[in-house]
Design brief:
The protein is α+β, with helices and mostly antiparallel strands. Helix content is about 25%, strand content about 35%.
Length: about 230
């Protein structure tokens, strides 16, 4: 049976392509796939303990079965730290700087006495190295689904409203990469919702960033193993 592979960040570098295909026997599992990919791509082997796998957009557990036509995504740890939308608000991935206006409009509620806007920007320095820009990439269908899940779960738990936009592509130093709008009846809930949304985004959403330095070097910032919702 034929399995489609889509790879991101350091996994893509190890394979040498963003997409490829492999032929596996019937009844293959993710472990079977790991063995075959390790044989084909030796540079992938040291990364494997750090990778999460998604089968048809869902994070896979050990023993997950594959079927003909499955799409398997190789997902390194996400960045963690520190255009036109392809999905309607309240969540979107955008090419270019996120626009706060539609996010604030999405959370507007006359019953809410507090509205917050968080903007995350590219730092121009990391440990004394000048940073020129970041490059973001995402597994877009899974990223949008994860963002929607985060918004829905936090809204239900905290009685608030949330909207999130994250940039993909190139982001120069000093420019905005993520915008989160939150509103709630009281400021404590709005602050808590905004912070929880950001922390969960860094753990649960398959978005990677590559940091580019003034000396011409670049590094993938792969910090947090991709996790399922803890909500």
């Amino acid at each position: 049976m034929k399995i489609s592979i889509v790879a991101f960040a350091s996994a893509r570098d190890a394979i040498g392509a963003a997409r490829t295909e492999v032929e596996l026997a019937e009844a293959a599992t993710v472990e079977t796939l790991a063995e075959e990919l390790g044989r084909r791509y030796p540079d992938l082997r040291p990364l494997w303990p750090r990778l999460a796998l998604a089968v048809d957009g869902i994070l896979a557990r050990p023993g997950t079965a594959l079927h003909d036509g499955s799409e398997v995504a190789l997902l390194p740890p996400v960045s963690g730290g520190s255009g036109a939308p392809v999905s309607p608000v309240p969540v979107s991935l955008v090419n270019g700087e996120p626009d706060p206006a539609p996010l604030l409009a999405a959370v507007d509620d006359p019953a809410h006495g507090a509205t917050l806007l968080f903007l995350g920007r590219v730092r121009g320095d990391r440990d004394g190295r000048a940073v020129t820009h970041l490059t973001y990439e995402a597994y877009e269908p899974m990223a949008l689904a994860a963002l929607r899940r985060i918004v829905e779960e936090i809204e239900a738990a905290r009685g608030c409203r949330l909207a999130i936009a994250h940039r993909i592509g190139e982001a120069p130093a000093g420019r905005t990469t993520v915008a989160i709008a939150a509103s709630a009846p009281h400021r404590e809930a709005a602050y808590a919702a905004s912070r929880e949304a950001l922390e969960r985004l860094k753990r649960e959403v398959p978005i990677w960033k590559r940091e580019h330095y003034a000396d011409g070097a670049a590094d993938w910032l792969e910090v947090e193993p991709l996790s399922r919702s803890r909500g």
